[in-house]
Amino acid sequence: MTEIRSVCVFCGSREGNDPAYREAAMRLGRLIGERGVRLIYGGGSIGLMGVIADAALAAGGEVVGVIPDFLMKYEINHARLTDLVITGSMHDRKRRMFEIADGFVVLPGGIGTLDETFEIVTWKQLRLHDSPIVVLDAGGYWAPLSALIAAVIAGGFAHEAIAELFTVVASADDVLPALESAPEPKEEVLTSHL
Predict the structure, then answer these.
(1) Is the pLDDT of residue 73 over 80?
(2) What is the distance between the alpha carbons of residues 63 and 75, in angstroms, rounded to a whole number?
(3) Does pLDDT of 20 surpass 80?
(4) How many domains is the chain partitioned into structurally?
(5) Helix crossing, 90-99 with 111-125: angle to 10°?
(6) Pairing mode, strands 103-106 and 133-136
(7) pTM across the whole model
């Protein structure tokens, strides 16, 4: 069992078209806050980022936003956070979020969320961390990601155990238990690409 004291959530700066995305972000934020787990996220007040931060704060949780300085001029940063860390770049933002989180969760989002997701999964494959990663497939949003991973394996570009670098769940209620019980990656997935 992995002890999760702080969780980094990657998610969209928009809410998307399906109400299931917002509902999942609200529920997960509330669960994180009620459990006393510190939420680490992108620092925004808009989209699913704002939804999850507001829900965690309303439940009495600690919320740390990490935002690059150039986004501050757009005034999208959340004003009521426990802490707001301002970084010099997007790269610094991802590195700082990585440094202060015990686990990672992916909610629906756009290409920025995809970038963060692939980077944190790749870092796990390269043994830069062994933290659990959970993908919350709200409304079936991440089915194409699962299909892409299957295609990468079928195409011979990765060991089949690469799919075990992250866990996919359908409900916000399953996220924290999945983080705590995530399996260790198999040696083959860590070395077969070398």
Answers:
(1) no
(2) 18
(3) yes
(4) 1
(5) 50
(6) parallel
(7) 0.93
